[in-house]
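Discussion board: Methods & Data

I've been asked by a reviewer to show the raw model output for two of the constructs in my manuscript, not just the figures. I'm not sure how much to include, so I'm pasting the format here to get opinions. Each protein appears as its amino acid sequence followed by a line of discrete structure tokens. Is this the kind of thing reviewers expect to see in a supplement, or should I convert it first? Here is construct A:
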Amino acid sequence: MEDVNPALGAFVQEAREILENLETMLLDLEGQPQPEQIDAVFRALHTIKGSGSMFGFGILARFTHHFEDAFDKVRDGLLSIDDRLIDLSLKARDHMSALLSCGGDCDEAEALEASTEAGRLLRSLSDIVSSTAADAPHPPAEASRERRWRIRFRPEASALRNGMRPDLLIAELAEMGRITISFTAGDLPALSDLDPATSHLCWIVELLTRQPLSEIEAVFIFADDAELNIADVTEQAQPAAKAAPAPRRPPEAAGENVRVAASKLDEIMDQLGELVIAQARLSQLATATSDPDLETMVEEVERLVTGLRDSTLSIRMLPIEMVFGKFRRVVRDLSAELGKDVALVTEGGETEVDKTVIDRLSEPLVHMIRNSMDHGIEGAQARLAAGKPAQGTVSLSARQEGGEILISIDDDGAGLDPEAIRAKAVERKLLSPEAQPAEEELFQLIFAPGFSTAKQLSSVSGRGVGMDAVRSTVDALRGSVDVQSRRGRGTRVTLRLPVTLAIVDGLLVRLGSSVFVIPLASVEECVEVDAAEQTRDSGRTMLCIREHLVPFLELDAVFAQAQSAEPRRRVVIVKADGQRLGLVVDDILGQNQTVIKSLSQYHRGVEGFAGATILGDGSVALIIDVASLARRALSQRHAQRTAA
């Protein structure tokens, strides 16, 4: 496979980041736009246009040029910012993103450029620009007359190797007026020594144009290391204008940011995981030998490994604002589609989460926001009749509690209807007609596959697939979902997710001769009980702990192992999906830092396990999926109630 030009890859990555930021910039303009905000949008467009031309994205550059013209009018005060301009700008930004994804001037990009949607966008952009032409002040005669410029341009020797296309820069100059081109090749080596990837030529261009000096300089904005002289030679009798250096972007502090591929971070985490396992093995050997010198060294190694672990994990941590910021566009578009006035409020965007978690959060959050706006938030008339403001509010907030990240989605809408949920559950045979579950249990039923109480389908929701997707994603992230709702007051859905997916603190438990790991974030307490303290309530297996009944599962039965003969067994009380559950084990071995290993493709579908880990003695311990066991216990309770 041909290696990808690193400079081209850097351009694509930078352009994607600019386009993501551009969406936020455009949405910010809907309030009270400031001149610096307008300039930021113009600079972003100019950057993509210039670098796109340089790296062979001519179709993208041509389209961006029309987009840039519109904001040039805004910057000059000739065009006002209104809803039409913002709507059009957001669609144009999406089209630029699609052109960037095509990978350059290929057949796919040409097809996209010739599409009906692209044509409509170009006509709308041209209409906006041309509509201001009649009102634009006429430039002074001196400024509008043609001038002759002599441009001397020598790229840095490695410029061609890094992706620079001098021919595209010259072509952009040619669009400004009439040009003549010549070369100097005094530094050209002998043919036997010639490296075709090295730049040896110096371009001398004479340009006759009405464009000002600033526009000519802008063509070379990315030629940072090139020799560049631009002189006004309109009248040879007058002294030439002072040579203008190539414009340069403000230098960043050395070492301030380093862009690293996510795959390399994953490799580091894999190696760190192996190091943690080796360190656990070393600790076990030191304990067995009782050598004080070895124990001292082991403590030092453990301290260093812990510091390395924390530093490596911090590299993978990103602010969740990266996810939150994307939903301003979602809420804006849905408000227009649904005909509802809804505001988005975010809080705690600085909370840091593992990159893997962030990458997989967008889809479930979109589903919940769509449900909140379609089913939760009422129309303006209904809100006013209920004594609420006409504008609805959806809030996104994040905070950290211990080893978990809590992400809440609140709305001030009508809330969930427990009776409607119960009726639908009975209809779908998820509940027996006689069952009277608590509201917390009823609310969990909205995550059942295909479950929906919507009376009619819409283009936004109503098919019962959204919340099921939320549950699947959260389960894959080893998290849980809590739902709280009050009729007429609104609903809050809280996602509980681990801070990191690579290393987790676990509780080692023994079941017969096997060792399992229970994630410590799910553990509430550990108790010791005997068979006499086990009871049955309406056919359900329960434990009485401090006068509270807690359902329990005997893990030897769940995992089809031989029944335990232990006279007194331990129970680990865990909490998942808003309910407490007891897991009966033979013994509790202690706390351990667990490196998570994925199960093979043949075992990933086994219910009850979230992965595996390697212990200090080299043996493998399975990590228990508390959430799936909690749902299993809930289904058993429903079945027992139905049978009773």
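Construct B, same format:
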Amino acid sequence: MNINHYLKIAEELKIKQKQVSDTIDLLDEGATVPFISRYRKEVTGSLDEVQVSAIRDRVQQLRDLDKRKEAILKSIKEQGKLTPELEKKLDAAETMAVLEDLYLPYKPKRRTKATIAKEKGLEPLATRIFSQESFDVMAEAKKYIDPEKEVNTEEEALAGARDIMAEWINENAELRIKMRKLFIDEGKFVSKVIPGKEEEAIKYKDYFDWTEPVKTAPSHRVLAMRRGEKELFLMLDSTPEELDAIALMEKMVVVENNRAAEQVKLAIKDCYKRLLKPSMETEVRLYSKKRADEEAIKVFTENLRQLLLGAPLGEQAVLAIDPGFRTGCKTVCLGPQGQLLHYDAIYPNEPQKKIAESGALVKHWVEKYDIKAIAIGNGTASRETESFVKSLGLPKHVLVVMVNESGASIYSASQVARDEFPDHDLTVRGAVSIGRRLMDPLAELVKIDAKSIGVGQYQHDVDQAALNNSLDDTVMSCVNAVGVEINTASKELLTYVSGLGPALAAKIVEYRNENGPFKSRSEIKKVPRLGDKAYEQAAGFLRIRGAKNPMDASAVHPESYAVVEKMAKDINAKVSELMKSDELREKIILKNYVSETVGLPTLQDIMSELSKPGRDPRETFEVFNFQEGVNEMKDLKVGMKLPGIITNITNFGAFVDIGVHQDGLVHLSNMADRYISDPNEVVTVNQKVEVTVMEVDTARKRIGLSMKSDPFAEKKPTGGGGRRERKPKEEKEPEGDMAAKLALLKGKFGK
């Protein structure tokens, strides 16, 4: 690893070089991000998951850059064109774009207009014209007329020379850097509807005639315009003003005012339109897409994290209902560990309306299976089914909870569901998923492709590899933050435990099925193919309740058991007593246990864990109820204040379920009484909020909501308004006399 990379990463992340190098060593040894941030704080200087992930991702980028440099150096060497100066420039390149700019003149090409002109012997003419000396251009061009080479006139000779000059200009690395900056800083997205598609493209109406700077365009609008273009509804351009681009090129290339310079200017215009503009626009589109993807992925992963870490009901018997009208309500009874005890269908809604019969069945199941909560999916007929259940006069301790069922149908048709319930149909599996989501959202949602959970923004438009990597990181982070009970966890949940993965997760479940529950963490080593490294990475995140050693149910890593046992021995207590007594723990003097391998950060973590061994870090479950009598959009009135629950957060606002089968949008400008730039400043997924109805558009199924304390207060004018166009910045004329300027030009272009 290049030591300069350590320095670069340390500088970018504002941490020490040693923290970077030691973290990279751990990653290269196969350690996971959760393990490093939780159990190797002495090594990394207490870096958190975000910092460790940033180091991992950045070092991969730099290694990819190094590989590309090696390939380019090899290619240029084989051509016999590598100079010490070029090698130095290649070595100093810090981005792929700069690296490719330097390689462009040496890159194997298809047959271009310039190569054809060179074959006609026109390169000497191009070289003389490009010097911009004063001479008779037409007379010089006449020398190159050669019918056998298909050069029949002076103009044909000049055209070929311009083709060669255009390619020289296009391949100049310094010019490309400045042009790239112009495209990014001053480029504009210009979106227009394709004529004749106005009605068909109505969902893109906002972009029928839209202009905004590339540099500041938010993620959701970039992805929306690109999707509209892909679906052949919109025409999208993303360039700066052509005059500004040409002016920039002329300032860098034109050094005289004569006939030769006029030919160079013509070559510049041709270069821009034919070569540089398409190339730069492609790059800018990739740049803006990458930036939009990163923002969308960030939004998605943050939503997913909040959803996965939603408060669990816990191990209690649940009756789950997947509501419906004509086909009835699929109903299942689940035991405290989520096991399926019973399934059936009831018909309390239209058209059957078997209310008495359905009610009797629900009451019977509640009593027979000691049901503590009833989970109702929030899809079709949910509010009607909720009203029916609440009318039954069930015992007060039985909670009635509406559960977000996004993705339940995906789960029910998946191989995971078929493996779990091979003898049951889709409807039973879907109802089971709804019930288990209430009991433990994390354990159930890991079984579903994260993109199907319903908390993303343009998730199918972003880079899928980057999205999947980020989502996997998020799921792994959440799973390991909570910890996993190894004796009840599904294969899918175990897959995300640090150091395991699908193959070892399957082996653990297989071993558990054949040998019964694990009695200790050390027994995990008996699982086939689970070696010392995997055990080291996973053990601290696995829990075994009721184990002989109480630390097996905690986040204390087995490698630290000896330290805890010594602590207990030093105060004449048992480990179990130490874990129960604040008074005993206060007797421990941590500095007495610092060693070469165990420092204060780990000791402090151990003491924190002993005070709450194995405690779930998620919030306590609270029941939420929608407003009674407000079940459909037609029940809404502007000005109504309603309880709601945040279902999805985007960078332009948050969507809120208010119980009418259509989420409403609280725009960023309506989220707080103060100015905010990011919805995450004030809301989280699953948060309970009170909203005011501002707008109801039944035809377009749109509901506008506000979280302001006085949303109808008159807005004061803020001044300005509209989108102002920014003028391109003017570049200063290079200093020095004309001779110096000409020397500079020759140096830049090497001609």
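Answer (T.O., handling editor elsewhere):
This is acceptable in a supplement if you add a one-line summary per construct. For B, something like: The chain is about 45% helix and 10% strand.
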